[in-house]
Design brief:
The protein is built from two helices and no strands. It is mainly alpha-helical. It has a domain of 34 residues. The protein is elongated and about 60 Å long.
Length: 63
């Protein structure tokens, strides 16, 4: 089954209680879900987006 392309915007993150999400997912029945290589790629991209640290001064070069 083909679906339209989806775009993920990491700047808009919404949180919901885990119990609510589990109950909602169970009520939806069968649904399309990303397979492992794509799921891990999305999770890593999300982590990279948020782990960027801005330092007030540059790090001196390694000598």
């Amino acid at each position: 089954m083909q679906r339209e392309i989806r775009v993920v915007d990491f700047r808009r993150v919404y949180t919901l209680p885990k119990a609510f999400v589990r109950n909602f997912a169970a009520a939806q029945g069968k649904r399309l879900r990303p397979l492992p290589p794509y799921r891990e790629h999305l999770a890593q991209a999300f982590a990279r987006f948020f782990m960027r640290v801005g330092l007030p001064v540059d790090i001196p070069p390694f000598r």
